[in-house]
Amino acid sequence: MKFGTLFLFATLLAVPTAEAAKRLRDFEKPPHNYWQRAPQDRFTKIKTALETGKLPLNRTSEKAFVVSLLAALEISPATQTLVYSTTSLQLSRISPRNPRALYFNEDVYVGWVPRGQIEIASIDPALGGIFYIFNIPRASAPIRIERSARCFNCHAEFENGRVPGLLLKSVVPGPGGGSLESFHGDITGHSIPLKDRFGGWHLTGKHGITEHWGNMVGTLSTAGLKKYANPPGRQFRWETYPVSTSDVLAHLLHEHQVGFVNRAVKATYDTRAALAAGDAQAMIAKHAAVLTRYLLFADEAKFPAGGIGGDALLKKDFAARARRTKTGLSLRDLDLRTRIFKHRCSYMIHSAAFTGLPAPLKQQVFTSLREALNPAKPHPASAHLPAAEKRAIAAILTATKVW
After folding, report:
1. Is 348 a domain residue?
2. 5: exposed, middle or buried (Cβ count in 10 Å: 0-12, 13-18, 19+)
3. Which residue has the higher pLDDT, 176 or 249?
């Protein structure tokens, strides 16, 4: 090592602690202490078993490995959505010829680029996103899983309130996958109009969405943006992936979940900071109102005429995770004619992102929900819900021991 390099290295090590602390993001500082807390997310709980081989996965092919990993995480392959814009840490590997696949349940999100790496975003109740990346091992080689801080360059920036959350972008990609134009900025969730969604993604399945940005690429010139069709399967082989879908229902569920997780994680961090400062009442009221409105789908985007279909395997696997009343009602009961769900209260109330809310905030959300679901009194968060639906939702929340 040359003297100049050694001197620079020593100088960097000698930076005073106070100055080094200034470079930390807020979520890394007290009272949050992101790196000091032991993660309690679903993926971290099986990480050691994966690395030691106590939880063996199928290594006969990349696809077989992914399918077995999804099974270990209780994620349906039918949640698959394919994105060909270069909006990922593995951007050099992603293109219309090699889309990145994403899979999810309510607590874990898996990304995979064929001939690339596996990415994990696992939601911790107190910390939000815990991010991992690793190679698919060859033969009998051990799995080496890296907890990644590089993901924060995108996953903890202004789009999600500078806390460890999730990203879901809609862009017009160029022929190579690079973004030319983007939509809906830092907003995530079910309120985004369908016409602004799916940019850079493949969209399959029965739906009547006539205006959207999926299944296309573009070029820019002095004449403006010119769009070209990029039909699913034209530039890649479906056989590469576990299923031959990037279904519209998977997209709608994914968008809804990302919107909820980001709101819940932001609420958790803001409330924890306010409680530590000794003045949390206004912060709790603010986030409780936001979460209540989101849980009840108060601003859900308008569905296309005729509704959507939804992949049969996805609907089956999604329903299999339902918590039901004695009469069979569930927050996972699908409507798909004019809205996503029959009973408009999010099943994400059972997720790690919700259960990890600070206790005073969670109790305020419960209070707000009870008020909003009272059929005898109007409430701004539930004005769209008929009395019968309010009663059904309240019965489900009671029977599934949410409150």
Report:
1. yes
2. exposed
3. 249
